[in-house]
């Protein structure tokens, strides 16, 4: 297929009409006596490529540092505030959207007006109720859970500053507008982001395609002696050559004992014959992620234990795909899947009591229905208490632990509930064990065609 690259200085995945719909939802939520103001990401301090925060991108699609959005419920008008054009910087690095591009910005983002940053104070004057996100902004490779961990580490350090950029912005609003009540916009944005639009699903479908291709190429290149990070390099190649900005989270590429650590990330071990590999990776496509998990044998053929345990997990996973659909409660899907899988377990013969205990525990407390996926790989919002609805995207990820033998395995895909059932967003990556083995035999991998420099 031919890759179509977006223009260098603005995105084209999402239209102004989509952003306008999101603006209307904010107006409906805040009412006619309030405004919402959202701060975008600050500039990068090195040579990394700027990535807009998920919250600001979700409402504007604008990828410029130091930008602000005002959604005014009093007149239901949206205003975007950007820095003015830096001619010297533009001459050096190329075009970047600025306050002077008002007509283009209105066309791209669905706002009603564009101003310089200096105008924001005047436009906020007199506001009695101001909604702004209180949760930390999600930047490159960030989720709320990773952010919370970092905040906890900073708070425990008496020599660091625990004040976040969001907290500072809120304190400025309170100081400069002391008569205004400051309210949290984050819960609304979480609710809005939970259900994906067709355009969001299209971006995630593209991300899923690249995710699957990356894992497939890693399978083909797997040999004893290959390093975990080399499989990660293959994934990065697939992302970049197909127009993605790169990984959406640090890759999990674990072999041997490293597999036991759920979010292992160092990826420095050499693959050994007789072991297997866990790969969990995904690219960032237009600020949208994906999620996948696959196990395969280093030597190209599952041994009997791997085939039994992983084969069971694949069947468990496929059973979920069979039963998922709109209108069902998640707990009911779990119940149906477990009921269908219990006779399968009863017919299995296990080498050890610990293995049987682990398999039965996977059914007793099924983990198939896990976190939502979207702009963050561990996205926001809970879906477990309501019937499934079309547009819900989450990780389908049944898992199994056998602690006595330090065995962990799982099978993961990102899925979206549709009007008629469920769509797997990573269907190009094989699930069946025989298909995985056949793919590994299908020819030399990238590492074999272009080996590392000795």
Give a structural overview.
This protein is 39% helix and 14% strand. The chain is an alpha+beta fold and 454 residues long. The protein folds into two domains: 178 residues, 3-Layer(aba) Sandwich (Creatine Amidinohydrolase, Chain A, domain 1); 252 residues, Creatinase/methionine aminopeptidase superfamily (Creatine Amidinohydrolase, Alpha-Beta Complex). The strands form four sheets. The chain has a six-stranded mixed β-sheet with strand order 4-3-2-1-5-6, with helices on both faces. Strand 2 and strand 3 form a beta hairpin. Helix 1 packs across helix 4, helix 11 packs antiparallel against helix 12 and helix 12 packs antiparallel against helix 13. The two termini are 34 Å apart. The relative contact order is 0.11.
Concise overview:
The chain has helices at 16-30, 54-60, 87-93, 102-109, 120-124, 144-155, 165-176, 186-194, 198-221, 228-241, 304-323, 330-346, 353-364, 433-441, 446-449; strands at 35-39, 68-72, 77-82, 113-116, 129-132, 181-184, 252-255, 276-280, 294-297, 369-372, 393-396, 399-402, 407-410, 413-417, 422-424. With 454 residues, the chain is an alpha+beta fold. The strands form 4 sheets. It has a 6-stranded mixed sheet, sandwiched between helices. Strands 10-11-14-15 form a 4-stranded antiparallel sheet, covered by helices on one side. It has a 3-stranded antiparallel sheet with strand order 7-8-9.
């Amino acid at each position: 297929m031919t890759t179509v690259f977006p223009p260098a200085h603005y995105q084209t995945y999402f239209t102004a009409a989509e952003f306008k719909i999101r603006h209307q939802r904010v107006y409906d939520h805040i009412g006619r006596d309030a405004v919402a103001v959202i701060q975008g990401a600050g500039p990068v301090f090195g040579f990394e490529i700027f990535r807009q925060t998920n919250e600001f991108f979700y409402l504007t699609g604008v990828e410029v540092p130091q930008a602000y959005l005002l959604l005014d419920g009093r007149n239901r008008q949206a205003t975007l505030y950007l820095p003015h054009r830096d001619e010297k910087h533009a001459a050096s690095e190329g075009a970047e959207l600025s306050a002077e591009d008002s007509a283009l910005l209105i066309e791209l983002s669905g706002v009603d007006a564009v101003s310089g940053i200096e105008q924001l104070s005047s436009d906020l004057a007199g506001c009695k109720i101001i909604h702004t996100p209180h949760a930390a902004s999600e930047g490159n490779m960030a989720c709320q859970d990773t952010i919370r961990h970092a905040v906890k580490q900073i708070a425990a350090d008496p020599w660091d500053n625990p004040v976040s950029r969001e907290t500072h912005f809120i304190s400025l609003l309170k100081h400069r507008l002391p008569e205004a009540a400051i309210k949290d916009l984050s819960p609304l944005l979480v609710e809005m982001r939970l259900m994906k639009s067709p355009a969001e699903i299209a971006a995630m479908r593209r991300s899923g395609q690249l995710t699957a291709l990356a894992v497939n190429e890693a399978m083909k290149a797997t040999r004893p002696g290959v390093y975990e990070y080399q499989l990660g390099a293959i994934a990065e190649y697939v992302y970049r050559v197909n127009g993605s900005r790169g990984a959406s989270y640090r890759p999990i590429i674990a072999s041997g004992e490293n597999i036991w650590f759920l979010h292992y990330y160092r990826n420095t071990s050499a693959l050994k014959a007789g072991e297997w590999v866990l790969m969990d990776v995904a690219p960032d496509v237009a600020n949208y992620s994906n999620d996948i998990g696959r196990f395969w044998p280093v030597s190209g053929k599952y041994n009997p234990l791997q085939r039994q345990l992983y084969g069971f997990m694949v069947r468990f996973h496929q059973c979920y795909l069979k039963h998922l659909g709109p209108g069902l409660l998640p707990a009911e899907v779990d119940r149906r899947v477990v009921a269908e899988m219990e006779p399968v377990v009863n017919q299995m013969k296990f080498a050890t009591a610990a293995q049987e205990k682990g398999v039965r525990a996977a059914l007793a407390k099924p983990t198939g229905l896990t976190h939502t996926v979207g702009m963050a790989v561990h996205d926001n919002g809970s879906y477990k208490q309501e019937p499934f609805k079309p547009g819900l995207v989450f990780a389908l990820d049944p898992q199994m632990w056998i602690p006595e033998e330090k065995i962990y395995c799982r099978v993961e895909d990102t899925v979206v509930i549709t009007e008629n059932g469920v769509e797997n967003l990573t269907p190009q990556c094989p699930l069946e064990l025989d298909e995985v083995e056949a793919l590994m035999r299908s020819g030399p991998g990238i590492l074999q065609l272009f080996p590392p420099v000795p």
